[in-house]
Amino acid sequence: MNAPIPRISIRGLSKRFGHKVILDHVDLDIMPGKSTTVIGMSGSGKSVLIKCILGLLKPDSGEILVDGENWLGLPEHEQLHRMRRVGMLFQAGALFDSLSVWENVSFALLRQGVDKKTAKSRAIEVLEWVGLHDIEDKVPAELSGGMAKRVGLARTICHKPDIVFLDEPTTGLDPIMADVINHLIVRLHKDSGTTILSITHDMKSAAMISDHIALLCHGSIHRQIAAHELESDQDPMLRQFIEGRAEGPINCSSWGKQIEEAIQR
Ligand SMILES: Nc1ncnc2c1ncn2[C@@H]1O[C@H](COP(=O)(O)OP(=O)(O)OP(=O)(O)O)[C@@H](O)[C@H]1O
């Protein structure tokens, strides 16, 4: 029997800025319908990884295969067409200030030419799914941080993507609102079988929303485990990260140097 094809397969992905190597031959497979979370220290390259996958940054080398097809090798219009399958929740929400909540939520649908009435009605449906009622005509400035994050999540899934990327879905939220977001992500995953790739350093969130957890460290995926192995896995780097210890095999000196340089500037 043939082995199942990963929904997303990252092969030998490398990216540097000047002399600074950020990603160094990253390999990662995400199977259809699975939720994988990449964890790693601040500055380890998690956002750069997602930006490379989304085509927002050009990697120096490597492949990103979706259902076996190399998206990086496609002409731009083909890439844009494929991106209809993708939803992205940005860390800072990235809502457009000048658009109403419903226009933000249905942005992808409106760009695809869906008529306004249908788009608004779908936006209201998804807003209700994230627990928000009667806010479709508000503007982002009127929303609390937790509401804005839920609006961002509604926008991510409004066009029914089957692949979703989540950049720090709980950052900046109080613990209760973070729990609400985590539950919504779990529901999205269970109800629709969406393939999810998240990046976070919130370990509670990672444990809750993931089938698999991958540690990005020193430029590559150092270890990948099932989420239920998080407490028992004895890999020294993984333990250091989970337990939040400055001392250990993860080399923090380059970050220390960056902080020193920033202070001196
Ligand atoms: N466009 C860019 N030009 C130059 N350097 C960049 C650029 N984008 C990211 N970097 C550098 O790449 C490194 C990794 O950044 P990245 O944002 O991916 O980290 P991260 O793991 O997502 O961190 P955090 O958890 O704090 O969000 C950082 O040192 C950052 O300064």
Q: Give every kind of bound small molecule, once each.
A: adenosine-5'-triphosphate
Overall 3D shape? globular
* CATH 4th-level superfamily: P-loop containing nucleotide triphosphate hydrolases
CATH class: Alpha Beta
Stretches where pLDDT is under 50 for at least 5 consecutive residues are none
H/I helix tally: 10
**Topology as a string of helices (H) and strands (E):** EEEHEEHEHHHHEHEHEEHH
- What can be said about the biggest beta sheet? 6 strands, mixed
Share of helix among residues?
Answer: 25-40%
Rg over alpha carbons: 19 Å
Mean pLDDT: 88
User: What's the total count of β strands?
Assistant: 10
Task: Please describe what this structure looks like.
The chain is α/β, with parallel strands linked by helices. It has a single domain, classed as P-loop containing nucleotide triphosphate hydrolases (Rossmann fold). The chain has ten helices and ten strands. The strands form two sheets. It has a six-stranded mixed sheet, with helices on both faces. A hairpin with a 2-residue loop joins strand 4 and strand 5 (69-70). Helix 5 crosses helix 6. The longest helix is centred in the last third of the chain and has 18 residues, at 175-192. The protein is globular and about 55 Å long. The mean pLDDT is 88. It binds adenosine-5'-triphosphate. Adenosine-5'-triphosphate is lined by residues 17, 22, 40, 42-48, 201. Residues 8-243 form the ABC transporter domain. Keywords: ATP-binding, Nucleotide-binding, Transport. GO terms for molecular function: ATP binding; ATP hydrolysis activity.
